[in-house]
From TrEMBL:
Belongs to the binding-protein-dependent transport system permease family. This is Carbohydrate ABC transporter permease. It is a multi-pass membrane protein. The chain crosses the membrane at residues 69-88, 100-121, 133-154, 239-258. It comes from Streptomyces sp. R08. It is found in: Cell membrane. One of its GO terms (biological process) is transmembrane transport. The lineage of its organism: Bacteria, Bacillati, Actinomycetota, Actinomycetes, Kitasatosporales. Residues 65-257 form the ABC transmembrane type-1 domain. It comes from the Bacteria. GO terms for cellular component: plasma membrane. The keyword Cytoplasm does not apply. Keywords: Cell membrane, Membrane, Transmembrane, Transmembrane helix, Transport.
Length: 272
């Protein structure tokens, strides 16, 4: 018991250390950042750093935050709807090749997204969609792991008997899905939306390949561009650290707001 508790404490400290470092570093100016202990405070320059990051390049950082919110919200919403519909189809309909299709979905979910970034770029460059919002949204809409979760939640939350009763009452298949299945799969849908939102927010390689205009960058790629600039021009490390801290605040708010849904949703999937 003591060993388990000790390991959990070590894991907790390991997990919180980067966030603590960001919080401490965001309160320092350039001089204190290099001359003081990295894990403790010195003089407080957080207000100055926030003012500078909001005004630098006409407030481009705020534009990056807005882009990340847009990409993550639309991408996660589209991926959730497609995942629930595909998972529902895999779960509730009998047709030839269903097992092979499900195996293909599981196999595709094991592929790392970074491996697909360059092939996707070649495809979108061929059709002239690079450096557009669609070049990042369309790949986000397709999430094999979300389809797998959609099937799991459909198996556990949509009774076949209820579907049969709806058919007897004259409801079509689309109406059954929209009016019955989606409502029953709401908790699972929120869980899939949350996972997709966080994944899209943190995604780096796909925007790196697809976008080349600074105004269209998400916050992850924008901070990376500042870090690259720091190697050739002014030292941007303070702004990058402060921006990194600010970039996790929307995710924290999002997670706390939906915690009662994703906890029950993950529990439902694990029980299945």
């Amino acid at each position: 018991m003591a060993l388990t508790t000790g390991l959990l404490i070590v894991f907790l400290l390991y997990s919180l250390a980067p966030t603590w470092f960001l919080l401490v570093s965001s309160t320092k100016n350039q001089t204190d950042l290099y001359s003081t202990f990295g894990l403790w405070f010195s003089s407080n320059h957080l207000g100055d750093n926030l003012q500078e990051i909001a005004s630098y390049h006409d407030g481009v950082f705020l534009r990056w935050i807005g882009n990340s919110v847009l990409y993550s919200t639309l991408g996660a919403a589209g991926a959730t709807l497609i995942s629930l519909a595909a998972g529902y189809g895999l779960s509730k309909y009998e047709y030839r090749g269903r097992g092979a299709l499900f195996a293909l979905v599981v196999g595709a979910s094991l592929l790392p997204s970074t491996l697909l970034a360059f092939p996707l770029y070649l495809v979108f460059a061929k059709v002239g969609l690079t450096n557009t919002i669609w070049s990042v949204l369309i790949p986000y809409f397709i999430n094999p792991f979300g389809v797998y979760l959609g099937k799991v939640y459909a198996d556990s939350s949509v009774p076949t008997e209820l579907m049969e009763a709806a058919r007897i009452d004259g409801a079509g298949e689309l109406r059954i899905f929209l009016s019955v299945a989606l409502k029953l799969m709401r908790t699972g849908g929120i869980t899939i939306f949350m996972l997709d939102f966080v994944n899209i927010w943190n995604n780096f390689f796909l925007p790196l390949f697809m976008l080349n205009g600074e105004r269209s960058f998400p916050v992850t790629l924008g901070l990376f561009s500042w870090l690259q600039q720091a190697q050739t021009a002014r030292d941007m490390n303070t702004l990058v650290l402060t921006g990194s801290l600010l970039s996790i605040i929307p995710l924290a708010i999002f997670m706390f707001a939906l915690q009662k849904y994703w906890r029950s949703g993950i529990l439902m999937g694990s029980l299945k």
